[in-house]
Amino acid sequence: MPVPAGGARRYDPSAMDVNPLGVLLEARSFLRPIAWRDTTPEPPSLDGCLVFPRDRRARSFDGTEVAYSVHGSGGPWVALVPGFVCNDTFWTYLVPALKDAYRVIVWDPRGLGMSGLPRSPGYRARNLSRDDFSIENIARDLLAVLDAEDVSETALVGHSMGGQTILESYRQFPDRVSALVSLTAPFESPLRTFYGHDFAGMFRAFSTAVFALPRPSVMVWRALFLANPSFTHRVAQMLRALGPDARVEDMQRYYRHLAYLDPLVVAKMAEAMHEHSAADVLAAVKVPTLIVAGTLDTFTPVSLAQSMHEKIEQSELVVVEGASHGAVVEKPDEVNAAVRSFLDRHVAAPPAGSP
After folding, report:
1. C-alpha distances out from residue 122 to 117, 127, 129, 133, Å
2. Which string of b and e fits 269-286 if b means at least 16 CB within 10 Å?
3. Which has the least CB within 10 A, 10, 56, 283, 297?
4. Closest listed residue to residue 324, CA positions, set 6, 8, 4
């Protein structure tokens, strides 16, 4: 990925300007009904939000419809497991790097992307609970996709919260997992390691505040992500959620997808994530595992990755210099090479005629 001479990108004051015309053009998006997402969203409602199509559906244990697609026509299976409120932005470069030798599953956890909800949210999302979005349920959604494709064994690649999901999946169905890949991903709530501190108390206060907000405040939420993606991107970099090599062109679909999520539902998803821990799974993992960390990651610091590496017996640790929590799109060449090398060594089918 190209970087201007001299290293990190320079601050561009124009990125802080809000374009009034852009806001007007997005007026229809701003005025979309707050509870627009019912049990199954329609494709036009997420126009411009996804990188890859979702042309297949699976039915999860509680009736939730799970949207997914398969890329590649042969080879071992690899399922990509997204992070907290993530669309497929972070798979932009990884899918092309794998699909020539693997069958790659891109899917949306419940309530995200083109996947549905277990029931209609109702007024202020009162019909949905934190438990609906538990990591345990997300792992069961993944299992439904594997069953739909008759996948007997797959490698699981998790980014961010996807690291919790792949470890929970290993807990639930270890015989279906051939390998694990953790991309800047924790084994429990990143709020316990964010900026090197425990933010659990602050999170509880934030969650309470979100539930108390009047519904029209969702317009402010949408404005944060729709009015000026360059401004949003700059703020994300200032907060060190993304590194200097993250490009706004790569992240625009991610911001647009976030804009159309209900903050009340997002808060319930966050509570579910925070309640989960797979710390007890680490020592029980018996499959090859790759752990990728970024030196600038404030969510899952290198020290956390090192701790995981020490606890997982068959693990490898790769540290990417100058990469943050978004290393998979910030440093795609390095991350793709690490993932592909690992899968080729541990998962790839042996050449024809070999013993």
Report:
1. 11, 5, 11, 16
2. bbbbbbebbbeebbeebe
3. 10
4. 8
User: Which structure tokens are listed for 3?
Assistant: 């970087």
- Structurally, at CATH architecture level, domain 18-346 sits in 3-Layer(aba) Sandwich (3.40)
User: DSSP 3-state assignment of 263?
Assistant: helix
The domain locations on the chain are 18-346
Report the candidate in 353, 298, 285 with the shortest Cα–Cα distance to residue 324.
298
Q: Does residue 254 contact residue 89 with C-beta atoms inside 8 Å?
A: yes
What pLDDT digit, counting tens, does each position of 312-345 carry? 999 999 999 999 999 999 999 999 999 999 999 9
Residue 34: closest CA among 221, 175, 294, 197: 221
Specify whether the CB–CB gap between 115 and 107 falls below 8 A: yes
**Cα-based distances in Å from 234 to 1, 10, 13:** 18, 11, 10
The 10s digit of each residue's pLDDT in 320-329 is: 999 999 999 9
Closest among 224, 158, 188 to 299, alpha carbons compared: 188
Cβ neighbours of 4 (radius 10 Å): 8
Residue 47 CB contacts under 8 Å (≥ 6 apart), including other chains: none
Decide if 264 contacts 211 (C-beta within 8 A): yes
d(Cα 271, Cα 56) in Å, to the nearest integer?
29
pTM over the 0.85 mark: yes
Report the residue count for the chain: 355
